[in-house]
């Protein structure tokens, strides 16, 4: 089935082959259909999925995400004013609906980010975080 990840994957492959115009058109089409900004320049690991086809997802173009991640609707992964770096997200991470991952931070492997959480600090492996700002509510 065609979803936002399918559009991203196709645009990313074309971008890697240095085809100039098609990735931009595919990104625009994805925005028009799913109201999502998923740049072809970002790096999403194999097995990454979007809930409900990726409606309302916004990713920074320098985002790096590991394998087998699940991204809910209305999720934002982006930079922070005054910082060049953007989040780096590990493998097997679940970003629940409405979560915001902001700034030069690292999210470890096997992490769950609760719904509407705002993550602005590093999160270690095997943690569950929730709240505004997000705090570890379960570890290991």
TrEMBL record:
Example GO biological process: cysteine biosynthetic process from serine
UniProt xrefs under Pfam families: Hexapep (PF00132)
Gene3D superfamilies: Hexapeptide repeat proteins (2.160.10.10)
GO cellular component, one term: cytoplasm
Keywords for the protein's UniProt record, in alphabetical order: Acyltransferase, Repeat, Transferase
Enzyme class: transferase
GO MF assignments: serine O-acetyltransferase activity
EC number: 2.3.1.30
Protein name: Serine O-acetyltransferase
Family as reported in the entry's similarity comment: Belongs to the transferase hexapeptide repeat family.
Superkingdom of source: Bacteria
Lineage: Bacteria, Pseudomonadati, Bacteroidota, Flavobacteriia, Flavobacteriales
């Amino acid at each position: 089935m065609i979803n936002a990840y399918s559009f991203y994957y196709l645009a990313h492959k074309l971008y890697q082959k240095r085809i100039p115009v098609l990735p931009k058109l595919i990104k625009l089409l994805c925005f028009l259909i799913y109201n999502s900004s998923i740049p072809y320049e970002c790096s999403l690991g194999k097995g990454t999925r979007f809930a409900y086809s990726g409606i309302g997802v916004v990713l920074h173009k320098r985002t790096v995400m590991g394998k087998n991640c699940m991204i809910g609707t209305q999720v934002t992964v982006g930079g922070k004013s005054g910082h060049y770096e953007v989040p780096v997200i590990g493998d097997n991470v679940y970003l629940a609906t409405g979560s915001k991952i902001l700034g030069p931070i690292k999210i470890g492997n096997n992490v769950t980010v609760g719904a509407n959480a705002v993550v602005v600090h590093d999160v270690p492996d095997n943690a569950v975080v929730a709240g505004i700002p997000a705090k570890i509510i379960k570890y290991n």
